[in-house]
Amino acid sequence: MMKGLKKWRLFSMLTALMIFLAGCGDEHLSTLTPAGQVGRDQLNLMILSTAIMVLVIIVVMIVYIIAIMKFRRSKLGEDFIPKQVEGNHTLEIIWTTVPIILLLILTVPTVIATYELADTKGMDKKDENGNKTAVTVNVEANLYWWEFEYPDLGIVTAQELVVPTGEKVYFNLKAADVKHSFWIPAAGGKLDTNVDNINTFFLDFDNPSDSLEDGVFYGKCAELCGPSHALMDFKVKTLDREDFNAWVEDMKASADQAAPETAVAQEGQEIFEQSCISCHAVSGAGTAGSVGPNLATFGDRNRVAGFLEHNEENIKAWINDPQEFKPGNKMPQPEDLPKRNGKELTDQELTALTEYLMGLSVEE
Amino acid sequence: MSSIAQKKGFGATLWDYLTTVDHKKIAILYLITGGFFFIVGGIEAMLIRIQLLKPDNDFVAAGLYNEIITMHGTTMIFLAAMPLLFGFMNAAVPLQIGARDVAFPFLNSLGFWMFFFGGIFLNLSWFLGGAPDAGWTSYASLAISSPGHGIDFYALGLQISGGGTLIAGINFLVTIINMRAPGMTYMRMPLFTWTTFVASALILFAFPPLTVGLFLMIFDRMFGANFFDHTMGGNTIIWEHLFWIFGHPEVYILILPAFGIFSEIFSTFSRKRLFGYSAMVFATVLIGFLGFMVWAHHMFTTGMGATANAIFAVATMAIAVPTGVKIFNWLLTMWGGSIKFTTPMLYAVGFIPSFVAGGVTGVMQASAPLDYQLHDSYFIVAHFHYVIVGGVVLGLLAGLHYYWPLMFNTMLNEAMGKITFWLFFLGFHLTFFIQHFLGLLGMPRRVFTYGEDQGWDLFNAISSYGAIFMAAGVIVLVVNIVMTIAKNVPVGRDPWGDGRTLEWAIPQPVPFYNFKQIPLVRGLDTYWIEKQEGNVEGMTYAEPIGDIHMPNNSIIPFIMSLGLFVGAFGALYNGEQPWAIPVLGLGLIITFAAMATRSLKDDLGYHIHKEDLLNEKGGKH
Fold first, then answer.
1. Whether B243 contacts chain A with CB within 8 A
2. Which of A78, A123, A352, B586 could form a disulfide with A267 if both were Cys (CB 3.0 to 4.6 A apart)?
3. What is the mean pLDDT of residues B554-570?
């Protein structure tokens, strides 16, 4: 028996060690390192429920271990006939009522938080000038990319959400094709983007994201939506309110971006305007509903296509063969574009396009 | 027809099983088919874990991966767990209540063959253009837009096999209400019979919503309807509700019979009456009832609003109470008993911490705001594998070892059984415990790959290695089964020595008519009472030996199901092949002609005469 106990101790120590080593995961991705109040509320519920449940587990395990240690036939003898007990009313009442009390302890904060997190009235609050005080983002989920429209600000972006810190940011969620689910684990729980209706909720962020490893929080699609569901990532950049306002102005101004400087980039622009612009806008001023992601901030981004490292090599590879990287996505292969008549992009054209795209930026 | 245990050729045996209406043989059919699909689903599981072994793996392609996860879930729930449970129900319940067969032997056969053909149809999708790929939940927007015929196979296959399940459920309800032996009052029924009863009631109410949902899906995909097309006024959320109004009770349909099996095992191998029998019965009924009140907790993130979420959160938490009652009563059954660690008992003892772990994470997810984080992450994957593998599959494996001697009059090797248990049990925890943390670290479920350096690499590798242990356990089990069948050493009546309920009192091999004389039940654990009083027969009889009325075998259930199978191909290729509608018609004609034959041709069965019963030696005590 001692030997068994030793094994258990070793096992539990190893488990504890492993959890310790793993820490709480990456700050930009883990639900255990909440980035704002919503995430913290949810983590607190997790801690409370875990505490209650660990208590239950301990009680069960004590009774369990004593029972299977003490009442073995090998100890009691082959002929031992136990007393045929029918039951015990007192015990039944105890293990009915105590769990009810434990659950009530969990129920109260659960119900309160459910209502609090669903309260989106602040969305329509206006200041004395009649301007909305809170930032609202209309999220449209597409196969397999995200569009973020700021209806009150007249700007739109894609793949990288930019939000101000220290205030509630409201979201209107909708899917363009099939159901997806909008999830920024570090910021708080998810909400589905349905095809039928608009779902509304809010998140908040304490600090600007530039201190993070990649400078961004990670966002995920949490509802199976097709072959490339796993690759439907997005990123979240948080800026303090001042920087955010500046970014908004830059976005509005991106409509009249200066022409690219280098000859290569100018060639790229030409190709872009021939083949890509019918789906991809390059101006951040506008409204939602474009066929492909808005590219006004492409040069500022953290990833290509939401998940590939942001470098020229990946941009070329992606443009050249989108199906290879994200099976089932809606971006045509370059040779299938109407004006290309089956011609693939040459290396030179890819280089030109890449240089042009890398130059699309609203941040200095 | 009444030939007993004569040597038969392969063809004759095959014909016997195709036409049988004997619950004991149908149990074996369920066991073989369910076991086969369990292996298929297990192979799919291994492919999933190989793919996720390391980041950015390309072992299976993105689209194929979705087909594999969909078929893994669908196969395990509908084609492995349910039929295996039906196998044990068929094997044990009629014997436990002192019945000569189920109430409707013909329907029993029909239920099996519909499940069989539905399952085969679903799996043929692998060879006919691709399997379903929208997850086992097959949410409507994705399912409607899924190219190819995968979803059509899903909808038609589940429709057919679901019909079989509904028939089987009704059959057990009627059997348990009507066929109990004299003295077998409701409050003397063994717990496995009780849980079968409640699970059957759940089937009766839970499967019709699935049937409706699947029909809407079939019409949408194959016959141009727009129930789920929001651009045409349809609504995809309706599918979610219909699916989960079925889907949540479904998990109780699976777990309750497993609870029943464990209850029998705890009491048998603790050599003690089940503690708090009436509380256990009440808890079972309550779980079944509450099981219908909580479906929307699968939809907390769908956007139902705070009030709906709050109500379903509280209702869900309430289920923890009767479940807790059960856990403590099992513990107290062992307390003061004389525990013998046989293989079934090992599974039962292993089940308690596993299921408690799965139960408490369930309560965590009942807390709606917390579930916004946990939903559709690997946390939920860990949770439902803890309840379904830690509860249902451990229950099935326990039941397999426990009821094997009842079904086959031989005993699975205990040493190998214990090896299977330890491999499977440790592998199970290794695979799934770590997945809780993957979810908390932000890993969504149903992802075919994941980028490296997101903090998930090590945990996924551990999870995949754990799966190898589970697979090894199953391989040992298969070897054990093959060896046991090859050796074929009969073990006789009450091989565990501590049998308490009526099924262990019957001589082995169980005569095809079960009871020569219907027994008189004098209390809970009736065989235990007789044994304690020194009754060598093991039963007190309620009637003198007389003629026994038996049903005739029939091939009609097979043909009826075959017609649906044929017709399904017609529906599947509707609008695509010129022969589609004729084939659909042909299939329905086969089915309806078989039904007409059944209705118009009197089949009154036959009698085993008293003299034959007296002369016949039957099984040995």
1. no
2. A352
3. 96
Q: Is B154 part of any domain?
A: yes
A171 bridge partner residues: A137, A201
3-state secondary structure of B351: helix
Distance (Å, whole) CA B26 – CA B101: 11
User: Looking at the domain assignment, is residue B576 inside a domain?
Assistant: no
Rg (alpha carbons) of chain B, rounded to whole number: 24
Strands (E), A120-167: 135-142, 145-150, 155-158, 160-164
DSSP SS3 for A305: coil
CB A284 within 8 A of CB A252: yes
Q: Which residue has the higher pLDDT, B184 or A27?
A: B184
| Window 131-190 of B, Cβ < 8 Å to A | 133-135, 139, 141-142, 145
- Residue A53 is nearest to which of B275, B360, B371, comparing CB atoms? B360
Written as six digits, the tokens of A129 are: 């000038």
By residue range, what is the domain housing residue B43? 10-554+603-615
Q: CB under 8 Å, gap of 24 or more: what pairs does B8-14 form?
A: none
* Residue numbers in A near B301 (CB within 8 A): 181, 189-192, 222
Q: Say if the Cβ atoms of B236 and A83 lie within 8 Å.
A: no
How many domains in chain B? 1
CB atoms within 10 A of CB B56: 8
Matching residue, tokens 């400087």: A261
Q: At CB < 8 A and 24+ separation, what contacts does B401-404 make?
A: B401/B342, B401/B343, B401/B344, B401/B347, B402/B261, B402/B264, B402/B265, B402/B268, B402/B344, B402/B496, B403/B88, B403/B91, B403/B92, B404/B484
Place of tokens 């009637």: B543
Number of helical H runs and strand E runs in chain A = 9, 12
Question: What is the residue-averaged pLDDT of chain A?
Answer: 90
pLDDT confidence tier of residue B621, bands split at 50, 70 and 90 = very low
The CA-based angle B597-B599-B605, given to 5 degrees, is 90
Q: Domains of chain A, with CATH numbers?
A: 24-75+88-117 (1.10.287), 135-358 (2.60.40.420)
Contact predicate B525/B273, CB 8 Å:
yes
**Per-10-residue mean pLDDT, chain A, length 364:** 55 58 76 93 94 94 95 91 93 95 95 95 89 94 95 94 96 96 96 96 95 92 95 95 94 81 90 90 88 91 91 93 92 87 89 92 77
Question: 3-state class of B277 per DSSP?
Answer: helix
- CA–CA separation, B134 vs B603, rounded Å? 45
Mean pLDDT to the nearest integer, B580-598? 96
Express each pLDDT in A126-165 by its tens digit. Answer: 988 888 899 999 999 999 999 999 999 999 999 999 999 9
Q: Which three-class secondary structure state does DSSP give residue A224? A: coil
The structure tokens listed for A337 are: 């574009």
Bond from prior residue into A144 cis (ω within 30 degrees of 0): yes
B367 and chain A in contact, CB less than 8 A: yes
B109 in a structural domain? yes
Which CATH number characterizes residue B314's domain?
1.20.210.10
Are the beta carbons of A31 and B353 separated by less than 8 Å? no
Residue located via tokens 């669908």? B74
**How far A156 CA lies from chain B's nearest CA (Å)?**
24
Q: Which residues sit opposite A148 in a β-bridge?
A: A139, A157
Residue B540 C-alpha, separation from nearest chain A C-alpha, in angstroms: 21
Contact B62 A328 (CB under 8 A): yes
Q: What is the ipTM of this complex?
A: 0.92
- Residue B111 contacts residue B29 (beta carbons within 8 Å): no
Cα–Cα distance between A244 and A57 in angstroms, integer?
48
Task: Identify the pLDDT of residue A11.
Answer: 61
Which residue type occupies B386? Y
